[in-house]
Design a protein that fits this description.
Strand order of the largest sheet: 3-4-5-6
Helix content: 25-40%
């Protein structure tokens, strides 16, 4: 009941077939295997004795193993974070592994059909790099802060703020998809427009930074992402120290 009638349906199905074929081809090019995933048990102890326990499902070529998320929906910042967390957990569990983590889906950029995010650990030799356990400690700290109080860390706006591309439509948009339009966010940050949100001053105990609260939290999380993971370069080692 969701497809239009007649030839309009044929045109739409042809368009969808083309997008799915492009996503499938991109997945194959990045070494995503078909069939059942191989579970990898993760058990990591962080510096404060916190244990991270769980399973990561491996779907990539055994030479550079890791998880893969292949989806029709557009690749969002939260998809990048999910891939990053899996990668950090794997690298912390087995630092000798040639780990990768992949997300493939439709692109946010309307000029591009498919977007692929292919991550490897940045390597311990990076100039300002951090190791996987330190990256996981940042993620755990963000989680613990978030269960104690509402923190200004948002699905899209924080990512764009880190990239210096944030704008008011990431908070409130005409289409109703801004971070500030979610019911939970409105409850936690009521009656704040974009300018007021960005002007929120940092508080004692917030992550370090020179900007306001939104900027400090964005840099804390996404800065850790950038310093612990890097795009995979085919033909080079994916393990720690194998990438700049």
């Amino acid at each position: 009941g969701t497809l239009p009638p007649g030839v309009l349906e044929d045109e739409l199905v042809d368009e969808l077939d083309g997008i799915v074929a492009a996503i499938t081809a991109e997945a194959t090019a990045h070494g995503v295997r078909q069939g059942d995933a191989e579970p990898f048990e993760v058990d990591v102890e962080l510096g404060d004795r916190t244990r991270i326990v769980g399973t990561v499902r491996l779907r990539l070529d055994p030479a550079t193993p890791g998880p893969a998320r292949v989806q029709y929906k557009k690749v969002q910042p939260v998809d990048r974070l999910a891939a990053w967390l899996d990668l950090m957990a794997l690298a912390a569990s087995d630092p000798s592994g040639e780990w990768r983590s992949v997300v493939i889906g439709r692109a946010l950029d309307p000029r591009v059909v498919v977007e692929a995010v292919d991550l490897v650990p940045a390597g311990f030799g990076a100039a300002d790099g951090i190791d996987p356990c330190t990256a996981l400690e940042v993620a755990v700290d963000c989680y613990r802060r978030g269960v104690r109080e509402p923190i200004p860390l948002f699905p899209v706006l924080s990512y764009e703020q880190h990239r210096s591309t944030a704008r008011s439509s990431h908070w409130v948009s005409h289409g109703g998809g801004g971070d500030g339009e979610h019911a939970a966010v409105r409850l936690a940050f009521p009656d704040l427009d974009y300018q007021a949100l960005m002007a929120l001053p940092s508080r004692p105990g917030d992550p370090p930074g020179t900007g306001g609260r939104v900027d400090c939290f964005a840099e804390y999380l996404w800065g850790s992402f950038d310093r612990s993971a890097t795009p995979f370069a085919p033909g080079r080692s994916a393990g720690p120290g194998g990438n700049p």
